[in-house]
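Now read the record:
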Amino acid sequence: MTATEARPRQALDPADLDRIDRYWRAANYLSVGQIFLVDNPLLREPLRPEHIKPRLLGHWGTVPGLNFLYAHLSHQANKRGTEMMWIVGPGHGGPATVATAWLDGTYTDIYPDVTQDAEGMRKLFRQFSFPGGVPSHNAPEVPGSIHEGGELGYSLAHAHGAAFDNPGLVVATVIGDGEAETGPLAASWQSHRFSNPARDGAVLPILHLNGYKIANPSLLARIPEQELLSLLEGNGYRPHVVSADDPETAHARMADALGSALDEIADIQHNARESGRVSGARWPMLVLRSPKGWTGPHEVGGLPVEGTWRSHQIPLAAVRDDPEQMRALESWMHSYRPGELFDSSGAPLPEVCAPLPAPERRLSASPHANGGLLLKDLRLPDIRQYAVQVPEPGTEHHQATRVLGGYIRDVIRANPRTFRMMGPDETTSNKLDTAFEAGGRAWAAERLPTDEYLDPDGRVMEVLSEHLCQGWLEGYLLTGRHGLFNSYEAFVHIVDSMFNQHAKWLKVTRDLPWRRPISSLNYLLSSHVWQQDHNGFTHQDPGFLNHVLNKVPEIIRMYLPPDTNSALVTTDQCLRMRDTINVVVAGKHPALSFLSMDRAQAHLARGAGIWEWASTDDGAEPDVVLACAGDAPTRETLAAAALVREHLPELRVRVVNVVDLMRLTAAHPHGMSDRQFDALFTAHKPVIFAFHGYPSLIHRLTYRRNGHENLHVRGYKEEGTTTTPFDMLMLNDLDRFHLVMDVIDHLPGLGVRAAHLRQRMQDERMRCRAHTRVYGEDPPDIRDWTWG
């Protein structure tokens, strides 16, 4: 099966031309109405100021080109029976996607009160960019959308993510002038080199050049055509250029170019699926040149509008108060000849909807654009078979991510078409390379004998662009599949803004009953701040956790597993979740294990708990609480507890470990109650909290808790370099000796009595630092420390 069927090339006959043109005119009419009108949708009476919205919001410039493309894509999907979805990159194409979904009938199916008649049209117009209505972007509220386009640069990456493992799907992807200038989009042109035409669907990029962005010319529209073609050909494409100004000739040219492109896709897929040869394909793409604001006002107030940047937003900005602009709007809307488009009730005429495919094939109704409809649970292996043995807490070393790699390998094997792992060339560095045993790295470009794990059917996707990894994974998840993104902790910040967009998408879709839950976006962050080996200050930043905390609590989870078994059970839980964004931070180096599998599962269920075996409070009220979150802080906390036990045996010390950070705040759906918090941390005793990240995050989570004034957090304070793990901890006062000093400093009455011990702790810090300067490594008693 190919994504589209090749058909003999035929010129567009006059009947088809008329149907496509009617659909295009109807979509344009509806788009203009959405921007301007609150009433009188069919212009059955002369326009008056009260028919115009008091605040004109939205964008016109890109819309007619989008409507033009949608009409032709629908025509081809109807003609060929192609399963197709579209992704709209231009940021403010909302009027087009809403208009086409309403014409298709999909909008009314989902929102029954917005009927396909005059009253429904009035509601459609009124709701657009109106309080309580729908946004001006291609937002989650719009059926057929997986890509809002509010932030530019990601349409092509999303499209490829949607096409992976969807062999019968064509993803038509419109790339606007502005988006074509972004770094992520520039890298995305290479995404097809990771696609297997024998197994994956096809992406049809459509570069829509209308000449301008908000206020400036667009770069790719101004370079010589031969340079543009050379650029696109160099990226591995066969471009088909359509210059559209006169609609009558433009329709015929677009129909021919689009038909040819779909034929080429069919040929590529057929050849790959017959021969098994998957590399070297030159994929088709379209370049549509059309005037910005096409079919809109030619000029306003003596200034040119159509074909210029002035048509980007509202061509007639003073229409409510200026009679001349009012007449211009009325003339503009009548130019689409609505009497040929809608019947007396306001419903689209049959001739208008003739280009549309069957309802299940309509672009606005694609189930892939509501991926939760297609989502199936992962088949997950029994996590216990990967458990490491922990005969006694803190005596054995294991590598959390190395063990996780075996688990992920078997997740891939059990779900060969619904799970992928993405990462920016760091899978091996993060010690997850055991996953390659299940299929290797996806790669459809040239291979050499010296290459390792390159596989056209690979399930691990690596490219040195965090933007592409995130975009691919988002597209994959939004169309009903599962995945994991592994990254160096410091550089996941590159996708901060993409994380924002996905989080906002999830927040909105939770309030849309027709949007079905999708698999969670899972980040696994390693090569973290506390052990860098080859790298230094630039690679030391745990601040992604702070960024994540800015989002609404319902959709975020942050986990800091203290050891290997905890990392296993946490990752297993994240892969089972829906409609959340999960962040797991796990070290890649050998580290002490503290919890058996049973204890790790119970600890994750609690989210935070007392480690009795490390505590000396014996069930009584402690004198001090030593709390920790993260693998390195947990080790240092336990080492500090051992020192306190040895030198201050009279103190009652409680050790509390936090694996689920969101348990600390009552504002989160599964945050612990105040009573639970007080029982765990006390309401009046000093709490010395050793934290993986910036100390401010713990204060943000707990500032409303009882005893917050007694909470003293140690964490990363922007001190770093290329140095040893323990020296790194000392640079940030997170080492065991400083934690003991904190106990002495914050426990009333202890300062004078324990002055000798405090001085000894300072001396130990100086000893350790001096050792690193002489030998280039941590002292053996620090490096080889174990509990007990």
The chain has three domains: 14-367, 383-591, 608-783. The mean pLDDT is 95.
